[in-house]
Write a structure and sequence with these properties.
This protein is of the alpha+beta class. Helix content is 49%, strand content 20%. It has six helices and nine strands; from the N terminus they run αααβββββββββααα. A hairpin with a 5-residue loop joins strand 4 and strand 5.
């Protein structure tokens, strides 16, 4: 009898849940009709199991809801991260694009957008290159290079550059000097790069924009003197550079103050250069 009770009680939850076979149902019904204890257990199970199942279902539903909330939160975090990443990429792309448009997209300035003239000092015959820009915002930089001709002569090529977005550059009102004046000198009616005893004279000075060229100096042309103010300006500029490049001066406690004073003097002289007014 004990074995039959155990079998019946094992089958009771299946019967209550409605998943037991017809044979199992008949076995339980016949058994509880004869066994009072199992009948009582079956009645208790009928009351307890639905509640337990409901709690299990509720717990399962709550677990599913938590999983869905976690998924939503993960999707939200992922969306925020992607948005932040895309925003950062957009900012980086914008910064790179602006930097490219203002600093890296080097475009030669058209030849009709500026005028160039050469002049020389009275003291040592140094050559100054002046660019009169009709649109001051066009200037980005000035590129210069040597070109050797098939005859062994050499020309100096010069091209001002601009960018896709031309930012304003601090340049003289009507002029821009290049660092080439430190190397070029006028002697015996010609321009030399350095010592005439060891260098050949410049044959031509040519402005370049793409495939277009314009000769502004041919060997034998006269180079006019610059104004005394321009000569004084470059002399003062040399003094500032000499002062600033001295390691002894740079170690002095009042270096910046003295350098700023010299630069202020240079700026005042620059404002008086008639060629740049």
């Amino acid at each position: 009898m004990k074995h039959e009770c155990n079998v019946a009680r094992d089958l009771m939850p299946l019967c209550i849940d409605g998943v037991a076979s017809e044979e199992s149902k008949r076995y339980v019904e016949e058994h509880i009709a004869e066994c009072t204890k199992c009948a009582e257990s079956y009645g208790e199970m009928q009351l307890a199991l639905p509640q337990a199942n409901a709690e299990k279902e509720k717990a399962a539903m709550e677990q599913t809801a938590q999983q869905m909330r976690r998924r939503r939160q993960n999707r939200k975090r992922l969306l925020i991260a992607l948005t932040a990443l895309l925003t950062a990429l957009a900012v980086i792309a914008g910064m790179w694009g602006y930097d490219y448009a203002t600093n890296r997209s080097i475009i030669p300035v058209a030849l009709d957008a500026y005028d160039v003239y050469l002049c020389r000092t009275r003291e040592d015959g140094r050559i100054f290159v002046n660019l009169d820009m009709k649109d001051k915002t066009l200037v980005y930089g000035v590129a210069g290079w040597r070109r050797t001709t098939p005859d062994g002569e050499w020309d100096w090529m010069l091209t001002p550059n601009t960018t896709l977005i031309a930012e304003h550059r601090e340049v003289p009102t009507k002029g821009l000097w290049t660092d080439a004046y430190n190397l070029w000198y006028w002697q015996d009616g010609a321009i030399y790069e350095g010592d005439p005893a060891t260098t050949a004279p410049l044959e031509r000075f040519i402005l370049v924009c793409g495939d277009e060229e314009r000769v502004i100096y041919q060997r034998g042309d006269e180079i006019p003197f610059c104004s005394e103010e321009m000569e004084a300006y470059y002399k003062a500029l040399d003094e500032v550079n000499d002062f600033s490049n001295s390691s002894a001066n740079r170690r002095s406690f009042d270096f910046e103050e003295r350098a700023n004073t010299l630069w202020d003097q240079v700026e005042q002289i620059r404002k008086a250069v008639p060629e740049w007014q």
